[in-house]
Amino acid sequence: MTRIADPVDGDHPNEECGVFGVVAPSRDVARISFFGLHALQHRGQESAGIAVSDGTHVVVQRELGLVSSVFDEPSLRSLTGDSAIGHVRYSTTGMNKWDNAQPVALPRGDGLVALGHNGNLTNSDALRRRVIDMGHELHATTDSELITALISHEPGTLLDAVCSVMPLLQGAYSIVALTEDELVAFRDPNGVRPLVLGRLDGGWVVASETCALDQVGAEFEREVGPGEAVRVTAGGIEARQALPAMGRSLCIFEAIYFARPDSILDDQAVWQTRHDMGIELAGESTPAADLVVGLPDSGTPAAIGFAQRSGIPYSEAVVRNRYVGRSFIQPDQELRATGVKLKFNPLESVIRGKRLVVVDDSIVRGTTTRRIVQMLKDAGAAEVHLRISSPPITWPCFYGIDMANRDELIAVGQTEAQIAAAVGADSLHYLSLEGLQRAVGRPADAYCRACFTGDYPIPVPDASGKERFEAAAGAAPSR
Ligand code: SF4
User: Fold this and answer.
1) SS3 assignment, position 37
2) Which CATH architecture is the domain 17-249 placed in?
């Protein structure tokens, strides 16, 4: 199967990865991991995998495809043990191969170390040379294999090994690692990607988002802190501050788009944060209009907030087909056009003759947005006023999010009026950085906002061209 970027979500940044881990000797840890990964499926649809340890052996099953297609009842029954880690992955076109599926597993001592990674390293090139000099033959093109290889060479407990390797890593990483007798979760010193711990009846859980804790009946305990490594056992957690925390730079796009709306980030419900973005947006720019509509599903909370603040009625106006797969075959221009219709169908009886405020969370290239505006006008909309619940994306991401190269970003060097004209809208407004900051309710330095500001919290080699960097790094981001 060739995984191609979703042709109808082409105007959103693409999801990254999700990680999950569980230690629960009296429970079916493979089944718990399956449901945990199921809750994290929105973070990656390209491949899924689970590694299980029974205390003596680590067994890994990973495959291209959705969680529900990779695992079935017999395969889950065969994965028996006391602890497990899991991973769902997204990657860019052409980098989808089985070797890149995770958990990655490599020999360590007499056993195995398995690892699942969400994020992207910015010093992959140096690490790759280091790992090759150690005599490793690399099979994958992900930086996750490099991290696994480095850990596999370190002596001592898994926690010792992780703490020895963390100072070598630069970039964004939220990772779960498993050996026969240990599960360790660790996070970069800037805390770019989320990672949370939860208490389970009979054990402990670690996951990218709290929605996965909810799914398996675990109670949120706390985040894995920036620079922290945590050994998770059935009896509790043993934490080490492996690296000094560099403040915190949580990816603000987690709040805008990536995280599931029922997750809690920074003690705040993601749905509520997005709703508040809509309130801020309406405070900044409300056109004369008859209806506020959100592009389902990601634009809906902000659209509801916009309607509340503006007093303009909210309505559904576009129905989303939730069962359109994200794994389209090559999306040439024709297929991209069809893709919008496949996924969104306008409610003509609602739209006809109306002046619409259409709320969406972000625009990357603008190609899909243009088709959606056209679709709404074809359905009879008198006017389409776009309101975007995030600032203009003008810089690429180096920390695990597939956005685009800078020259593909529609907002670079263009005014709102020019972008509105380019996508065929009657007007357009992006939420200001200040408005976004008020909605997330934390100070600016608590977040990475680099794709809006170009101010990267972790040094990047060359912010002008993402592809150039990836080519130089010689490794695909793990996401
Ligand atoms: S650059 Fe943007 S998408 Fe990437 S981590 Fe920072 S805020 Fe998130």
Assistant:
1) helix
2) 4-Layer Sandwich (3.60)
